[in-house]
């Protein structure tokens, strides 16, 4: 399974969950990243982050996460199938801990979907 690392002050490893459409959620506390490939032909491994989120249970919130992100993507010029889902599991974490990681990453990367 492939992974990406995000974070400039503190590095966090995110595991590949699939495309947003194909993603098979499982229940866990997590921070997640949604990315796309801005130049898939000449830089196929390079991902651009469009959103960082956090959840106490990915499985319970998967449908709303998918629906809201796909709606945002379509409204902002994206196309279906272009979004990728990455997960940084944080078992036993509090909402405060997950939000702290999310806020750090949003401040460092300024993804358009978090504006």
Task: Tell me the quaternary state.
Answer: single chain
C-alpha Rg, in Å?
13 Å
Tally of DSSP helical segments: 2
Strand order of the largest sheet: 1-2-5-3-4
Low-confidence stretches: none
Can you write the helix and strand succession as a string? EEEEHEH
Instruction: Please outline the major beta sheet.
Output: 5 strands, antiparallel
Which term fits the overall shape?
Answer: globular
Helix-strand makeup class: alpha+beta
Residue share in β-strands: 25-35%
Distance N to C terminus: 30 Å
What's this, in brief?
By secondary structure, the protein is of the alpha+beta class. 29% of the residues lie in helices and 29% in strands. Strands 1-2-5-3-4 form a 5-stranded antiparallel sheet, sandwiched between helices.
Structure description:
- There is one protein chain.
- By secondary structure, this protein is α+β, with helices and mostly antiparallel strands.
- It has a domain at 22-47 and 58-109.
- Helix content is 29%, strand content 29%.
- The protein contains 2 helices and 5 strands.
- The protein has helices at 58-75, 95-109, and strands at residues 3-6, 12-19, 30-36, 48-55, 84-89.
- Strands 1-2-5-3-4 form a 5-stranded antiparallel beta sheet, sandwiched between helices.
- A hairpin with a 5-residue loop joins strand 1 (3-6) and strand 2.
- It is globular and about 40 Å long.
- The protein starts with a strand and ends in a 6-residue tail after the last helix.
């Amino acid at each position: 399974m492939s992974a990406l690392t995000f974070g400039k002050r503190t590095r966090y490893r995110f595991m590949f969950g699939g495309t947003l459409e194909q993603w098979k959620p499982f229940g866990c506390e997590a921070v997640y990243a949604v990315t796309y490939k801005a130049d898939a032909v000449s830089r196929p491994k390079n991902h651009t982050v469009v959103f960082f989120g956090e959840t106490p249970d990915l499985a319970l919130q998967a449908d709303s996460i998918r629906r809201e992100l796909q709606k945002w993507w379509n409204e902002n010029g994206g196309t279906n199938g272009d979004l990728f889902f990455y997960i940084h599991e944080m078992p036993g974490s509090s909402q405060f801990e997950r939000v702290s990681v999310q806020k750090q990453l949003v401040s460092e990367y300024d993804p358009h979907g978090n504006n």
